[in-house]
Amino acid sequence: MSGAGKAFVEARGIHVSYDGNPILERVHMSVDRGAFVTIVGASGCGKSTFLRLLLGQETPQKGEILVDGKKIAAEPDPDRGVVFQKYSVFPHLTVWQNLLLPAEIGGSPFLARLFGAARRHAEEAAEEMLVEIGLSHARNRYPAQLSGGMQQRLAIGQTLLKKPRILLLDEPFGALDPGIRADMHVLITELWRSCGMTVFMVTHDIQEAFKLGTRILVFDKVRHDPHAPERFGATITYDLPLDHKAKAAAALPPGILKTHSHQGVDVHA
Amino acid sequence: MRLMNRNPSRTTALFLGLLPFALLAIVYVLASAARLADNPADKLLPSLSTMAETFRIMAFEEDVRSGDRLLWLDTAASLWRLGLGLAISATLSLFIGIFIGFLPYGRAFLAPFISAFSMIPPITVLPILFIVLGLGEASKIGLIVVGTAPLMIRSLAQTVLSIPREEMVKAQTLGASSWQIALRVVLPQIWPALITAIRMGLISAWIFLISAEAIASTEGLGYRIFLVRRYLAMDVIVPYVAWITLIAYLTDRLLALLSRRAFRWAHLQGDAL
Q1: Which of A82, A86, A109 shows the shortest C-beta gap to B169?
Q2: Residues near A113 by beta carbon (within 8 Å), at least 6 away in sequence
Q3: Does the structural domain A1-79+164-269 have CATH classification 3.40.50.720?
């Protein structure tokens, strides 16, 4: 599916199960540098699990994930930034302190605080990001005093200060109002273009997936056992490049993303 | 409108808050007056004026035998023990709490021990403390630590554990080491919980302090109460109990205020007592 050139992020034969119940099975994926990959699928079909694998928060029982040809670390690292739906910023730090934190962590191993010239340098970068995410008026507020959209803008800004090569988004706009969500789409698209990151975004909003992605992955179960719905895991069932978005949309059968009922209506694959 | 949706005004709330105190005082005064009318030498329910006079003597007049002003001597001795005991407990709970809550290895190593240790009824340890540490200050402070530290540790470890997993992952993606996360993410979020733990600890700390002083001491609020009990000196005991209550209440309020002032971020949502 991927275009020409060497793959940047690659998943090979991933298999994950919890307590003996397979969640993901035989997942293969190969993504080019700079892609914006949106991941959709019914609830509970392993999209978020897959994102946690890419993050290094979990490790697959079988298979491996490679970035730039190298196996990823088994724990999160600054190479891969993340924004979750909630709790992605630190509640005890103001907007300004949240934006200073990445530099303080990077520049001061023992105290994680910067002074003098190093601090001024960090403040410049934080100031620039503060303007970019449009939170200048709220610099001294705590996250609990921000709206959901502002919190997510802060979370994205904080993550991007670390200049990750890969940005992972786990339903980042799922809790936002439609208007705010559209603003966030503009922001994330601009940041993605200007930073040249590779983005993986899990969403349950199919329109969002088509609007933002250059490529869409659909996770679903290929095999169903009506008597034991936990029996089989999900895998990537559709992998569509979205260069011609209309064509890709037409390729998906209608109702693919409706929540599964598994109540005997499914035909055995 | 439903009762649950009706809120008292500020004045009404103040009045309602004072009402139980006033009722208690009135009941006492009436009962005391009734008993004293029967027998002016009655010791069980001394009049308010008798108690006030005794309290004045305890506070401002030198004791004939020792030359001390007993109330202040007792208060200073008790507060020193209480403060030192709670300071030790707070320090222990901060370090061990983070160790258990933050590190899976720490949890595996110490969580079962602390859980078991916290089930020891602290008073049963008092004889051991007296034998090992002697009858001096160390055993009394030791009892406060044994009585309060395990629960404070568990409470802080739980607070660390309930910091959202997302925050920990996010900090790692910013490149933070375990040490940096402990210092910049965990510790600052634990301070308000430490204050809450101290406020909880204060309740049992007073119990253990008074118990230890009652058994072996030569000064202290608990010592005095149990000493004058032999003479049925309710005119000393009741004001002392009220005095202890006042100190405990004020400490609790001060700590609550400190938490709100110093950790504003932690009090942005929800009501708290």
Answers
A1: A82
A2: A104
A3: no
- Residues of A in Cβ contact (< 8 Å) with B164: 86-87
pLDDT higher than threshold 70 for residue A91: yes
pLDDT level of residue A254 (50, 70, 90 thresholds) = low
Residue B267 lies in a domain: no
Beta bridge partners of A234: A24, A221
List the 59-88 stretch of A: residues with Cβ below 8 A of B.
75-78, 80-82, 84, 86-88
pLDDT bracket for residue B273 (50, 70, 90):
low
* Residue A241's pLDDT band (cuts 50, 70, 90): confident
What confidence category does residue A267 fall into, taking pLDDT thresholds of 50, 70 and 90?
A: very low
Domain coordinates in residue numbering, chain A:
1-79+164-269, 91-162
Is B184 in Cβ contact with A112 (below 8 Å)? yes
Query: CATH no. for residue B251?
Result: 1.10.3720.10
- B163, B165, B170, best to mutate vs chain A, most A CBs in 10 Å: B170
- State yes or no: pLDDT of A1 exceeds 50: no
Share of chain A above pLDDT 90, in %: 40
**Residue-number span of the structural domain to which B108 is assigned:** 85-262
Hey, how many other C-beta atoms are within 10 angstroms of the C-beta on A12? 15
Min Cα–Cα distance to chain A from B234, Å: 50
How far does the CA of residue A223 sit from the closest CA of chain B (Å)?
32
Tell me if chain A has a CB within 8 Å of the CB of B176.
yes
Taking CB atoms and an 8 Å limit, are B169 and A102 in contact across chains? Answer: no
pLDDT band of residue A255 (cuts 50, 70, 90) is low
- In-domain check, residue B45: no
The answer, yes or no, to whether residue B42 has pLDDT greater than 70, is yes
Average pLDDT of chain A to the nearest whole number: 84
**Has residue B12 been placed in a domain?**
no
Contact status of B265 with chain A (Cβ, < 8 Å): yes
Is residue B180 a part of any domain in this protein? yes
Cβ burial B176-199 (10 Å sphere, 16+ → b, else e)? beeebbbbbbbbbbbbbbbbbbbb
Looking at the 3D structure of chain B, how many domains does it have? 1
The percent of chain A in helix, strand and coil, each rounded to the nearest 5, is: 35, 25, 45
